[in-house]
Amino acid sequence: MTNTRIAMVLVVLLALPALLLPAMSLAYIAYKGIPAFSWDFIFGTDPGSGFGVAGGVFAQLLGSLLLALGAVLVAVPFALGTALYYHLLASAVQRHVLMALMNMLQGIPPIVFGLCGLIVFVHLLHWGVSLASGALILAAVILPMLVLNSITALEQIPFEDTEAARSLGLSHASVIARVWLPRAWPGMLTGLLLGMARALSETAPILFTATVFSGVVWPDSIFAPVTSLQTHIFYLSQEGSDPAAIQAAWGSAVVLIMVVAVFALLARALSRHTNRQSGVLSEGADS
Amino acid sequence: MLRLWLTGSAFVSGMTILVVLGFLIQASWPLLQSQGLAFVTESEWYPYEQLYGLAPVLVGSFWSILLALLLALPTGLAAAILAAELCGGRGRSIVRFGMELMAGIPSVVYGLLGLWLLLPLLESRLNLLTGRSLLAAGLLLAVMILPTLMVFSEEAIRTVSREQREMALNLGLNWPVRLWRVVLPQAWSGIRVAILLALGRAMGETVAVMLVVGSLDRLPEPFYNLLQPAQTLTSRIGREMAEAAVGSVHWAALIMCGLVLALVAMAISLLAQRGQRP
What we know:
The complex is a heterodimer of chains A (about 290) and B (about 280).
Chain A: H1 2-33, H2 39-43, H3 58-88, H4 92-107, H5 110-124, H6 131-155, H7 159-167, H8 172-201, H9 204-207, H10 229-237, H11 243-286
Chain B: H1 2-35, E1 45-46, E2 51-52, H2 55-86, H3 89-104, H4 107-126, H5 134-158, H6 162-170, H7 175-204, H8 207-212, H9 233-240, H10 249-276
Antiparallel strand pairs in B: 1-2
Helix pairs in contact in B: 1-10, 2-3, 2-5, 2-7, 3-5, 4-5, 5-7, 6-7, 7-10, 9-10
């Protein structure tokens, strides 16, 4: 018995940082950031004042959302198409290769996509530092995650359903539209929301491809640069001599975490909801 | 039409990684042309004098990753064991929710924490002139990879079959022995994947490392000195990419850092996939 007890105490002690760190870091960020909050801080759009130190973060928030939204809009058609190809047309070898490539793509550090985007979009295609470059780079960052998520969502569909649809003589398109998408869309939407959260969290790939320090509220075109919350925090955090800048950085961090959390929690709620529903459905089928 | 869309998007998704590699190789070619392969072991990096030694960043990346892993693995594994073996369903979901929260904090915010919480702490505790060091980078990375390690290890531990556990219980083995001799060896292949994924994450992390590592192109002196400012592959790219002239050898050398990152990441991913297929 004593051995067991000692081992348990040891495990709990070792695990202690993992139990305490999440709450502690969030509490510290909130403690530092919330005093910066005011109406002007969130909704102020005056970009001229002190290079974003005095002004609000509304423009940055807008830029972040535009980049993430652009990335999702670009990536989703490809992700959906790839996942459908995987289930509908791919041979065993193709599936194997596609899976390996997607897993590999997921392991590539985001900064590498940033570099490649810098070469291709910013310089080769002369798009410059722009919303379009950033959105496409972020699309590549979230693509593997969306593909793998959609493949998993489609895998949840009972084999019998597809077989039944096929035996009725439905075409590929009808199987997708009538059987697969109605059952798989919540899972895919969950993936999309997580992709949004992921795109909102990335800083490195957009640092020198999509964003400028300040001065933009609404980009003139998709080939114009934007400002973003992530890079805003990055720049402000290095203004060590100015306490107001650091204060604004902590405030922006709280805003960023809240925006990311909105998407992550929506995804969580949706996946719980669908899990419960499909659980009820399969129980119903069993009885 | 449908077939075209599906085949087209699968082709694009699959080719992305090859296109990325192709452009990186093409853009880093000038470095190979002007320096051969010697740059890998050179320790001097002075763009103004055309010296592009990669040794300091390779050593810096190696130390920061190793440190992060050594610090995070015991805690991550213990938390996984705690959640999978000792807690009930409710405790388990609380621990996991904490990890998800931690994983959800963007890396730039970790950078902010590192810069304005960790560095002052290190400076006052260790009496350093500057806290910017490989130690700071390692500590920050340890926190950042903890969720990856814990979540994947926990899943690996939970997949150990009930029969195996019951068999060990029937043999009268107590919990620590069951854990050490039955559960952990069975879960090892999954834990290995968790470690590899965490490694990849630590290697590719950019902004947080950039803010705390000091960005000084020097080899640690002596080689185990983790308390002086250093540089990693990612922090060098982040610091200098905006300054390098397009098409110059400096530019090519920075792209080469990215190429190294990409190749190592691909190797790690292949290893992890081999681990997933028993």
